[in-house]
Amino acid sequence: xxxxxxxxxxxxxxxxxxxxxxxxxxxxxxxxxxxxxxxxxxxxxxxxxxxxxxxxxxxxxxxxxxxxxxxxxxxxxxxxxxxxxxxxxxxxxxxxxxxxxxxxxxxxxxxxxxxxxxxxxxxxxxxxxxxxxxxxxxxxxxxxxxxxxxxxxxxxxxxxxxxxxxxxxxxxxxxxxxxxxxxxxxxxxxxxxxxxxxxxxxxxxxxxxxxxxxxxxxxxxxxxxxxxxxxxxxxxxxxxxxxxxxxxxxxxxxxxxxxxxxxxxxxxxxxxxxxxxxxxxxxxxxxxxxxxxxxxxxxxxxxxxxxxxxxxxxxxxxxxxxxxxx
Length: 326
Known about the structure:
By secondary structure, the chain is of the alpha/beta class. The chain has two domains: about 10-260, TIM Barrel (Alpha-Beta Barrel); about 265-325, no CATH class. The chain contains 14 helices and ten strands. The chain has helices spanning about 5-10, 25-40, 60-70, 90-105, 120-135, 150-155, 155-160, 170-175, 195-210, 225-240, 255-260, 265-280, 295-310, 315-325; strands at about 20-25, 45-50, 80-85, 110, 145, 165-170, 215-220, 245-250, 285-290, 290-295. The strands form two sheets. The protein has an eight-stranded parallel beta barrel with strand order 1-2-3-4-5-6-7-8, surrounded by five helices. A two-stranded antiparallel ribbon has the order 9-10. The longest helix is centred in the middle third of the chain and has 17 residues, at about 120-135. The termini are close together. The relative contact order is 0.12.
């Protein structure tokens, strides 16, 4: 039996997505993002924005441009997703028809913003699947959902349970705005972690994701230059709220987010040593550096190794063999 079957016994596990999701909306920024991804490798995802990124009145033209870029040779790794308009906007079906119908074979995921319920979200997914089937696309395109309304937060566990969804993101600014002044403006920035209503929303989203094997993705950091602030916000989202992925809105943020959310070389070394020893013990209990470990801790260290492997970090051959054996 393979190691992951021994450790997780069929438990739903989140996909090993890149830890950073970089948003770009204008043609210049989309091309720059593709060039940077080509240079650094697929260590971060890109989302082409057809919602806020589309000039008003030119939604159809923008979707056509995005489809062309997704299909272009500039998209080397097929790790480019798209954000469509929200389900209340008249352009959302046209977005789906253009993006999925023309570029669905290479779209990494579709992000659906401002959903109000699990039922509404499934309706959008059904349309995406209908267009994909018509275009002879023989795969279920992964879906990501942006939680930024009261209704979405109310349905967050039902949303996380939808099979085609791979990740839920927190839409901080729209969520705060939806309280019509009841939450102070600083909660749209660094105050988010300490305001009870906002912290509760972040926790609910993260908990729902972890309950259903989905990836919780944290919102943007508005500071694009101060590395210490970007790192601090990312660490708090990771260590206090359990987020595994974070949005970027500027190239300066990408390396900070990737480094902060990826396992360190030391963490990978410890995880690999413990798992190799566990494998030698046929996954029974072991002692490592004076501490007892069993399958409960093996599952934790397995996810550490999985993140490093998926993130393209250099692993010793024996650790790659261990992970590839899964």
